[in-house]
């Protein structure tokens, strides 16, 4: 695996009230995968993957007066992917162009209002306007309330559009939405399609995800060394993209693809506590509880249409709202603990992070490119996650970073993500194990005349 990124930026001060920042983020990611059978040493699976990403952007900020600030900008995103996972070695392209405008206003001393709008145009899908409004009110010097409301937009990625993967040994295949219809028609023409498992009118039709988000929170500073945030959030999602089993072949091979969940939501609470233990050391703890569910499933449960099976007695029972766990691949509980230590004489920093991801469920063989068959968490066949299903246990990750600064212009960073090399290749194939990295940052500063 090779991952190279380059992120230069330039800041220019037009006037005392206006500055301009131009930046470019570019990256090239390459990987090659080969899996061999233990018994024979024979090559079981191989693929090559290369992704090129480029995002130029320009942004200008104008301080209209002491109480108002305007920010405007525009940019574009160019992505190219070349991989054998899509059934050929042709380049796949996707371009996105965007612009944004934001106004920050302090009408009175204790009140801050931020309003903005963003426009996205994607080469594969329609354009989208995303407005947002945020308000913060400082009740007293050390306590404030904040709230925000806005919409969001997320286009399908390359995998969800073009994925083309067959695994005869594990008896499944995964096709992206742009090719699944042709593949199913060919199977039907050859007499190899046994049954459809999903609405045929929806197969191959995939739309961007649209979200409407509401957030409300509060911030409190107990003293100069300790502060805390608590935030409540709710996101109504239209067109959430999920993996679905869409067909079954005559040789009992399951065909998977991607489709939209018409109505879903995520809601929960976030808690952050930060403390400065002394002049050199500070720490923080974050926790998130997430409730993510399909609203159509909730309606079916209310109407008594969803049943489960007791794994011991094998008796059927009617699923209640309390039994329903939620959407797949999402942990209800996530926690992080961070510790930063500064060495002033050496101008060095050490940063440690401990991350915990709680248990979650999966939909089965849902796009694993490594050729491994994934057992579904849904063991009673009701197509939802409930209390008697098979879940993947929670896990910990530990990250460590050491950075050194020279002459305020150059920073060298050495680090390790997942230092203790946690792996779960069956259920978390993108968790590749220990990842060592080196980062070099250099700032060019113009001398004042």
TrEMBL record:
This is TonB-dependent receptor. Keywords: Cell outer membrane, Membrane, Receptor, Signal, TonB box, Transmembrane, Transmembrane beta strand, Transport. It is a multi-pass membrane protein. Belongs to the TonB-dependent receptor family. It is found in: Cell outer membrane. GO terms for biological process: siderophore transmembrane transport. It holds the Pfam family TonB_dep_Rec_b-barrel. The keyword Cytoplasm does not apply. It comes from Candidatus Defluviibacterium haderslevense. Residues 26-419 form the TonB-dependent receptor-like beta-barrel domain. GO terms for molecular function: siderophore uptake transmembrane transporter activity. GO terms for cellular component: cell outer membrane.
